[in-house]
Amino acid sequence: MKARIILASASPRRRELLDQIGMTYEIWPVHIDESPRCNEAPHDYVRRIAAEKSAACHAQAVHMGLPVLAADTTVVLGGQIMGKPKDKEDAIMMLRRLSGRTHQVYSAVSLRGNEHGEALNVTHVTFRALSEREILAYWATSEPADKAGSYAIQGLGSVFVQSIRGSFSGVVGLPLFETAELLLQQGIQVLHE
After folding, report:
1. Residue 190 maps to a domain
2. Where residue 113 sits, what CATH number does that domain have?
3. Is residue 139 in a domain?
4. What gap in Å lies between CA 152 and CA 163, rounded to an integer?
5. Is residue 107 one of the residues assigned to a domain?
6. What is the pTM of this model?
7. Residue 191 within a domain
8. Contacts of 166 (CB under 8 A, 6+ apart)
9. Rounded distance, CA 54 to CA 38, Å?
């Protein structure tokens, strides 16, 4: 089946989500500096990163004539961006901070084709209280090592989630409602005959 979009990401989770809605795509990951700017608000940060990813990919793949989809997701606690952990100590510190509290997961989507469309999803996730033993055992699984906020809601980290208010797929890495809306604006229907 012929690709309908280019995915500017190597994330297996984003691929799984696009597969879930039957979207065909080419994978074209890009590498940009994802460092937050000084005093950059979380919603501005994720929107900027998603837009920069789609712009970089679109510039490289313009000859393919396909819309480019990019996304960025970050965990935010008390207004502070919690990226991927640098090491074990950083991951443990993040999980301790998330324990027993509600945090937000910001997911921005950027789609470049005939025009540029953007969307933002904010989901509230509440963790139950975590024991030190659980945190250390979770680190030992290696799952938190490359995840924003040091957890994967679609994996073993799901046992920490007491409640979620918003988009599950947004927490995983690609809010599907917003993505489908952006695709529709570019004339790409997810559900078609």
Report:
1. no
2. 3.90.950.10
3. yes
4. 14
5. yes
6. 0.93
7. no
8. 105, 121, 122, 123, 124, 125
9. 22
Q: What total of structural domains would you count in the chain?
A: 1
Per the structure block, which two tokens stand in for 114?
Answer: 């005939």
72-83 burial by CB neighbour count: b if 16+ within 10 A, else e? bbbbbeeeebbb
Residues 79/42, Cβ–Cβ less than 8 Å:
yes
Closest among 170, 190, 185 to 50, alpha carbons compared? 170
Question: Catalytic: 19?
Answer: no
Residue-wise pLDDT for 69-117, tens only, equals 999 999 999 999 998 999 999 999 999 999 999 999 999 999 999 899 9
Q: 168 near 124, Cβ under 8 Å? A: no
Q: Give me the domain span that covers residue 62.
A: 5-185
Cα 127 to Cα 101: distance, rounded to the nearest angstrom: 6
Say which amino acid occupies 168: F
Active-site residue (options: 33, 72, 87, 146): 72
Which residues, listed in sequence order, are joined to residue 112 by a DSSP beta bridge?
Answer: 68, 116
Closest listed residue to residue 134, CA positions, set 117, 113, 150, 114: 150
pLDDT tens by residue, 17-58: 999 999 999 999 999 999 999 999 999 999 999 999 999 999
Pairing of strands 25-27, 5-7: parallel
